[in-house]
Fold:
Amino acid sequence: MIRPIKAIVKRNLIKLSRDKMRVFFTLFMTGMLLFIFSFVTKSMVSGLAQPMNYLISGIIIMTVFQTSLNNSMNILEDIANGFMKEILVAPITRWQIAIGHVISAAIVSVLQGLIIVIIGLFIGLRLDFLHGIMMIILMCLVGLTFSSLGLYFATIAKESTNFQLLISIVTFPLTFLSGAYIPTMAIPKILLPIVYINPLTYTTSAFRFIVLHMENLSSPELIKSGVSFNLNGFIITPVMSAFLIVVLGISFFALCVNRFNKADFSRIKIFKHGHR
Structure:
């Protein structure tokens, strides 16, 4: 039961390891985001003790989020080159294929996130062993959660261009209204309802709580830092945020496996060289 899953994971990791541009693009985008949003963070929000660390922690977890979603495109590439047709007739169940793709996408997203962590260590980010382990566990959880969501999107898209459009529609507003790049304290009040229903808000909150060692801060200080949230007197703590991620992860995983079992891959069209 485990061997087919391991084979799919290994195959996808080998395939992605050959894509050197992916690593370069990750490093380039990290540098650009740090440069642009460092000015925004410093100018729009006062009172942050470590503005650069505050920002890079958001960039790390957003890298995991975006990479896990985008890596789901691999399933469409497998359909295009005929690999999916071959694997579907092999003695392997669909749920094993789905789990293999989810795990491989999550691993890649965590590895790319760890690249940003290493960059952060050179600009002042501090991690001890315990916080490092907790950080990696949360990154794995986020990677599994959103790679499951990405695979679900891939199976409902009838064309690869629709999938790319869907991913863009999802990632752009969720990313910029999560507090990852622009602190929630600086977001206009009219947009706060969207911030509070955005799952990435709580993902970023829990991650910052761990990475920035905020466990000794009081509840008002956590709220002021945009790590806890006061919803009409009800305080959403980082621990609650982490629990929410677990619930979303289980839900998205069950949803994507169920959808993958029912998907008709013959209906999916791959956009190539300007033609459908």
Summary: The chain has one domain: 2-267. DSSP finds twelve helices and two strands in the chain. Residues 2-267 form one domain.
